Amino acid sequence: MQARVFVGGDKASVGKSSVCLGLLGCLLKEYQPHELGYIKPVTQSTADTLIAKFCHSKGISYRHIGPVVFYKGFTREFLSGATVHTTESLISDIQRAVDEIAYGKRVVVIDGVGYPSVGSICGISNAVVAKSTKSSVLLVGKSGVGDAIDSYNLCATYFLAHQVPVIGAVFNKFQSTGFYSLSNCKPSIERWFEAQPPDNNNQQQKCYGSLPLFEGFGEENEACSTNSKPVKGEVRSVGLSEHEGKAAVEWAELFAQHVNVGAIVKDAVGSHTQ
After folding, report:
1. In the chain, what percentage of residues exceed pLDDT 70?
2. Which of 169, 89, 94 is nearest to 131 (CA)?
3. Residues 199, 43: Cα–Cα separation, whole Å
4. Are 75 and 82 spatial neighbours (Cβ–Cβ below 8 Å)?
5. Is residue 167 within 8 Å of residue 139, measured between CB atoms?
C-alpha cells in the first residue's frame, strides 16, 4: 500500500523542506528512485529549491511549484472574485497534481506551506490539503521542550479537527550544548510522547526523532515568499552544485542517525488502514 506523508510545521522555516529532503535521502537506501515522489502542492515561492535539485539529480518524480502559488495579492483577488479560482477548483487542482506524482509510487512526500492554517482564507489550509490527498501528517517541531510540545499540540489539534491522521513529529534545530541542547531535551520529549494515550483517531502519535542544527546548507533551505505571479511554462535551472550535493548527502546521513524513517512510512500506511 502506498504511503503518503504530509510534512507540516508550526511556522515557516521550521525545516519542513529539510525534513522532506532527509526523508527522501534515507528512502533512497530502501527504494528505487522511480518508487518515490515529492510535491509541494501549495507554495509561496517560485524559486528553485535544494530539494527540487536533489530530486532531479536522483531521478525522483517531483513538482516543487504549485499548482497553487500564493503570490502577492492572491487572497485579495480570490476574495473579490477577480480570479477564476474557487475553493473547489483549487482542491481539485491539488488532488490531480498529487495523484499524478503519486501514480505508481510506493512513498510520496508532500511538503506543506507555513503553519497548519495557511491557506484557510481560500479554503485550502494544510489540513484541507492533507485530507483531500489522503495523507498522514508528520509535524516538524521546534527545539526545546515546553514550547516545542505545546506548539506541537496546537498544530496536531488543527489537523485532527479536520479528521486528518497525525502520526507524530520530528523535532529540529537543537543546539549541541547548553540547557536546550539535543541531549538535554530529547529524553523529555520522548517521555511525553510515550505517556500519551491514542488520539481520537485511535492513532498513537510518536516522536520519530530529534535533529541537531545543521549548517551545511548555508542559506536557508526553505522557500521564501514571492511577490510576483508564476510565469507559465518558465524554465529554470535545476543543477545541483558540488556543495549542495555534498550537503544533501551529509544531511541524509545525519537524518538517518537521528530519525526512524522506516517507522514513519509504516505508520503512514497504518494510519489509513485502521
Report:
1. 92
2. 94
3. 29
4. no
5. no
Q: Would you state the cell numbers that stand for residue 161, as one nine-digit string?
A: 479537527
Neighbour-count burial of 252, counting CB atoms closer than 10 A to its CB (0-12 exposed, 13-18 middle, 19+ buried): buried
Q: Per-residue pLDDT tens for 141-171?
A: 999 999 999 999 999 999 999 999 999 999 9
**Residue 134 CB-density burial (10 A; 0-12 exposed, 13-18 middle, 19+ buried):** middle
Number of residues in the chain: 274
Q: What is the pTM of this model?
A: 0.93
CA 125 from chain centre, in angstroms, equals: 14
- Distance between terminal CA atoms of the chain? 13
Of 266, 156, 249, which is closest to residue 200 (Cα–Cα)? 156
Which residues face 206 on adjacent strands? 168
Rounded (10°) CA dihedral 23, 27, 29, 31: -170
User: Which DSSP symbol is given to 209?
Assistant: E
Report pLDDT digits (tens) over 180-220.
999 999 999 999 999 999 988 888 999 999 999 999 986 54
SS3 for 121?
helix
Closest CA to 68 of 107, 105, 108, 111: 111
CA of residue 266 relative to chain centroid, distance: 17
262-to-45, 107, 164 alpha-carbon distances in Å: 30, 11, 21
What is d(CA 259, CA 264) in angstroms, rounded to the nearest whole number?
9
Which residue bears the cell 549542495? 244
- Give the Cα-Cα-Cα angle 246, 23, 66 (nearest 5 degrees): 95
